[in-house]
Amino acid sequence: MAVPVSQVMTHAPTLPAMFDAPALGTAHGAASPALRRPVIGVTTQTLHAIEGIPDGLPESWVMNQRYFRAVTMVGGVPLMIPLFADDLATVRALYEHLDGLLIPGGVDMDPVNYGEPMRPEVGRLDAARDAVELQLARWAIADGMPVLGLCRGAQVINVACGGSLYQDIPAQLGTHLQHDCYPTRGFTRTHLAHPVAVTPGSRLEAALERSSVQVNSMHHQSVKTLGEGLAITAVAPDGVVEAVEGTGEGFVVGVQWHPEVFDADDPSSKPLFEAFVRACVEYSERR
């Protein structure tokens, strides 16, 4: 005998219920058994937007697993967000289940998103990712949901708030400091390229518990015009913006480096993810 669809839906677990588990601070790692682990949305990228991907592979959305492991390392549950740029209603339905948003690194943003013509130095683009990440960032910031942006993710936060970017640091700023220390240029992903000075009293300083940190660097774009409601909270020795954060009460932090590639005890890595996931737990409790 067939079971009515309504009965199946009535007894099906909700998405958050699927992730019920001890959160940070319980016997398995954090505070109260009643708390569930926060669900962190992690955006993806279009496979064929990545340089070197051969033709003929299926249309796919992918993301480096280190971002997911960084989230689970500190008690969060990562949820991959597909790039339904043509179906934002589905993106919104996924968003409603999130306690936080992590925007990873990736390809360049199309300058059309901040109203500028494209320079010849701009690399590969991912229009679907631009559309979905900008929308998610705007929803999250408006709702007070914690947001952490890494490299490209910091730039997405800035553009989502109305800011703009330097499309190519060497061409537009002529800096002496190398920021584009990519593996394709012979650098390891953990190569410490330069120090950054962190603004005293900032949310970033509170998370890292230090006013200076050595970072890796794999970007050729950076914040130009600062977005509304943001503050610059870290700079490189040449003045290039290395971090921004929201000026309101919510956790909105973007850094230009890649903390996800380091070991758990790295001073620029785990403390930042821990602060982010704590903010996600607090947001979940307020909802």
TrEMBL record:
One Pfam family, short name: Peptidase_C26
Single GO molecular function: gamma-glutamyl-gamma-aminobutyrate hydrolase activity
The reaction(s) this protein catalyses: 4-(gamma-L-glutamylamino)butanoate + H2O = 4-aminobutanoate + L-glutamate
Full protein name: gamma-glutamyl-gamma-aminobutyrate hydrolase
Gene Ontology CC annotations of this record: cytosol
Family statement: Belongs to the peptidase C26 family.
The keyword Hydrolase appears for this protein: yes
